[in-house]
Amino acid sequence: MAEVLEIEGVVVKKRSPWGVWVLNLATLGVYGAVHWNKISIELRDYSAAVGRPFGNSPPFGALALFPGSLLILPPLITIAETSHRVRRLQWMTAPLGGAVSEVKTPNAVVLGVLLNVQMVYLQSALNDCWDRAAAAAAEAPVAMPLRPLPAPSARSGPGGAEAPVTTAVRGG
Q1: Alpha helices in the chain (DSSP H)
Q2: For the chain, how many structural domains are there in total?
Q3: Is residue 150 assigned to a domain?
Q4: Residue 172 located in a structural domain
Q5: Whole-prediction pTM value?
Q6: DSSP state of 3
Q7: Nearest to residue 32, comparing CAs of 86, 79, 89, 87?
Q8: 143 in helix, strand or coil?
Q9: pLDDT digit string, tens, across residues 101-147
Q10: Is 72 helix (H, G, I), strand (E, B) or coil?
């Protein structure tokens, strides 16, 4: 079973890398396209939620992987592009000053040619990214709600007179 996480308001899943690969083989590539679409959506939504949108189009990536494999080149391009996005996600979720093993695009492409094992490689990297992002979100300080302004009647001064409102202006 996949572990569902909500990070920065985005629902992501930590999937079993080898489970994804086995399902892809068992369905003759259909699940591979579905999985590719799902991880592309997660990458797009998470990157947008943290203010660094990747600008990818999940359906086109999935189409390039499944029916596009008849043309040989489209799946290689989508594997390269998606591995680049996963590497950017690794940079975004890496701790400051910490080392993270990066996804290598040539490795992903070669693994894609060899029985679609790039799915295992990329899903393992995504699982690590989701773990780091969830840990960082849990450690982040919780924003305290602002205290509401007092009602106008509460601003009255001594003797019931309206107290003057002062504003601070930064001079320059």
Answers
A1: 17-26, 30-49, 58-65, 73-93, 105-113, 118-139
A2: 1
A3: no
A4: no
A5: 0.76
A6: E
A7: 79
A8: coil
A9: 899 999 999 998 888 899 999 999 999 999 999 998 888 765 545 44
A10: coil
Parent domain of 109: 3-139
Residue 164 is assigned to a structural domain of this protein: no
Task: Give the contacts of 46 (CB within 8 A, at least 6 positions apart).
Answer: 7, 8, 10, 12, 89, 133
Mean pLDDT taken over the chain: 82
Residue with tokens 């359906």, as numbered in its chain:
59
Note the residue count of the chain. 172
Q: What is the DSSP letter of 162?
A: B
Beta strands in the chain (DSSP E): 3-7, 10-14
Answer whether residue 81 is part of any domain: yes
Tokens of 30: 């259909």
The amino acid occupying position 19 is G
- Specify the pairing of strand 10-14 against strand 3-7: antiparallel
